[in-house]
């Protein structure tokens, strides 16, 4: 089935806009492909270092380029639940590669930090920049030029976008992403949020809060809410980087291991030595990127991807804009209700039909491009499946269910939860911003209230504890952009603003910082650009200015005299406290050259 004409039109304008950059990218990619595998032309000393630990038979085969060598880029560490399962993956991949007649080597590791650990801490100011650092680290591992294809082991917030940038930078090589899956369901996410709110109000103590948090985050795998980590997995599958059905299978299960070994075999099958050569940079095109955006809207995914998708696309020579993302949101319906957009977690989403049902429905209505290449072959329809474990221990795939197993979690296109997607671009005299509407009640899509201005989230939280946040207001939290302090997530604001909203106040947030993929019920205009440290209009807002945030019409305005507002001297802030400690001094060059939020807040594509 061909895509909806409106989807086709947006895709066509992305193609046209991207032509010069995309053509240069493909020329470089094809030049690299034409040179073939480089191991045979490496100097003897170079090659000896590259396969020193291999068996004599593997050395002989690699020396003559007779077998394919699979590189592994891993984000394994054993502190973080989402990445701990990767400890055993290299052994599984090596075994599968050997059985398929190939070799696999860990090419390198990349850092993997957890935004859950660093929320509200100095380390959070390294978080966004870690994405580009991860891309660089993966590039170092692949620079040895020993590999015919690559498998990328990553899950969480900045790791998968960073690895995607690396995969597309090394786009002459086939690439498959191998996830670890979500942890099993623990304390329901809404109950965890309730206890957090009680703690913020002083009604329960730290012991009760820690108990609730520990019951929620309790074992190996990703957090079960639908934040950035699980949005990443959805993206990799709907863009064709995963094996079909791989996203939401729990760690430590036979099916999870079978999918991992299958990915290794498939990666070897799609190298230049075979008949299905699938270089990542050719495979991912404008249609793949649009499919990713469509999936983000249909599932109410993370706001972080308004940054990441722009940067990921740019790595492939594709120019994606916030307007493209917003226009697609006006077309694509919301089909999933997963916390914070509902009460279910990702395990419930998978049980209701998961990615297979979602892709089937979106294809049926023409919201996705089916005519794309994937690591599995040609056509996204191959992903409209339900993965099972066969009697032989291998993956078996059945057609996705025709009807959702739980319509309260996963809807069909005829009866969506919302006629439009979950993300919208806002523009006005403050600049440009992004808002997530999928978890915000319709009666709160328009907020007009006076500004309360803060230069960090600690200031707002202190005002809350002092009882100073009364009445309706728009919280302006500025000097939180990429150049100011690395654009940290301001998730500590979620609980406070949620409490005030529950008390009957009409509140909203306006910030040049980020909010977590777990952000929900409070309307928040985030990623404001130009940022305050660049003298953007947000720096001219004063306490008491009337602000109108309108997610219906896509506007965000300061309702003051235009001439007077424009003539104001922008506020400044002392940011010296953000320059040192917890490694922040190491990232000073990143802060100096970071691009604006609507360009992906990247140091690579500023």
UniProtKB/TrEMBL annotation:
Keyword field: 4Fe-4S, Carbohydrate metabolism, Gluconate utilization, Iron, Iron-sulfur, Lyase, Metal-binding
One Gene Ontology biological process: D-gluconate metabolic process
Keyword 4Fe-4S attributed: yes
Amino-acid positions noted as binding [4Fe-4S] cluster in the UniProt annotation, renumbered to this chain: 156, 223
GO molecular function: 4 iron, 4 sulfur cluster binding; metal ion binding; phosphogluconate dehydratase activity
Stretches assigned to the Dihydroxy-acid/6-phosphogluconate dehydratase N-terminal domain: 69-381
InterPro entries per UniProt: 6-phosphgluc_deHydtase, Dihydro-acid_dehy_C, DiOHA_6PGluconate_deHydtase_CS, ILV_EDD_C, ILV_EDD_N, IlvD/EDD_N
Pathway: Carbohydrate metabolism; Entner-Doudoroff pathway
Cofactor note: Binds 1 [4Fe-4S] cluster.
Entry EC no(s): 4.2.1.12
Pfam families reported for this sequence: ILV_EDD_C (PF24877), ILVD_EDD_N (PF00920)
Domain Dihydroxy-acid/6-phosphogluconate dehydratase C-terminal: 408-601
Catalytic activity: 6-phospho-D-gluconate = 2-dehydro-3-deoxy-6-phospho-D-gluconate + H2O
Annotated HAMAP family: Edd
Similarity remark: Belongs to the IlvD/Edd family.
Primary role: Catalyzes the dehydration of 6-phospho-D-gluconate to 2-dehydro-3-deoxy-6-phospho-D-gluconate.
Name recorded for this polypeptide: Phosphogluconate dehydratase
Species this protein is from: Mycoplana azooxidifex
Gene (UniProt): edd
